């Protein structure tokens, strides 16, 4: 019984960590007196996954490439429901099986002369099947042990599926966030970063404004770090609304501050009393946005870098003089550049230029009062 309990422990360890299935299969083979235990994710014609306790990797490769389609046992398993352990004699003609190519060329060299199996999951022609193999016939004791651990095997595999689906959804969300023009991070209540999209990783890598300190978000000043920690903590606990969860993070001289917005990340209890507290943190880099806009203006209208920068600054500040001051050029220079911009864009008034550029960015709304 101790061996069975240890086996069940290994099974659930594999449920939480799929890379541990081999350990669980070794334990299953030992408890059932088998040479090998193999778990395969397969269709009638394809073996996309095969995890074996002890089979020679070369034999595993041969099975996936050639013998899978010639294994009467696995073909017969297609007709069985999930959770029904069987021995080979229950579902195949053993005499015909032992006269075949698969048995003599693949099974006999490894002493896989007898077997038992069960389906752990099925879906639209795809199955997860477990097989145990050895030199002696399987009796009631072995089948009883396999039946005893079958519910645990099924639950562990279902846990694998759930974890995979959850991870896939999370990865899909952050892949979609790559198409935004801002960084996105999933952060724990203590400020520990769980995952981030590519833009956020690049911002953190610069170490200017936001940075990682032992895996936690921090700022250039202790005051801002404390404020950010407080904001993330309140946000993760659901105590901050979208309008409240915004702050600026200062950067080095000559660079615009980063804008940080925190939103509560939806979560649910999976165990009484336990709630995973997370916050979604969005980071906007106004300088990077400006660089992107300048590049687009240059490509579309053939503007020089100076002209494109001035045009975008006019949109942001709303006036030529203010734009000139922000760009560090004289009003006369700004007037000359603006005349060239009018010629290249086909407009004649500053208001028309602003409208043209805003329309060009209709798919990327520009907020005058905040870059968030």
Low-confidence stretches: 269-274, 362-372
The CA-CA distance between the termini, in Å, is 61 Å
The amount of helix comes to: 40-55%
Number of strands: 12
Domain count, please report it: 3
CATH fold-level assignment of the largest domain: Beta-Lactamase
- In DSSP terms (H or I, runs of 4 or more residues), the helix count works out at 15
Mean pLDDT: 83
State Rg. 32 Å
Give the strand line-up of the largest sheet.
Answer: 2-1-5-4-3
* CATH architecture verdict of the largest domain: 2-Layer Sandwich
Classification by helices and strands: alpha+beta
Largest sheet: 5 strands, antiparallel
What does it look like?
The protein is α+β, with helices and mostly antiparallel strands and 372 residues long. The protein has three domains: 2-166, Beta-Lactamase; 178-284, PAS domain (Beta-Lactamase), CATH 3.30.450; 288-360, Orthogonal Bundle (Arc Repressor Mutant, subunit A), CATH 1.10.10. Helices cover 49% and strands 18% of the residues. The protein has helices spanning 2-16, 21-31, 57-65, 72-76, 88-91, 94-98, 101-110, 140-177, 198-206, 222-236, 286-301, 305-317, 320-327, 331-345, 350-360, and strands at 36-42, 49-52, 86-87, 114-123, 126-134, 183-188, 193-196, 211-213, 216-218, 246-249, 258-264, 278-284. It has a five-stranded antiparallel β-sheet. A five-stranded antiparallel β-sheet has the order 7-6-12-11-10. The longest helix is centred in the middle third of the chain and has 38 residues, at 140-177.
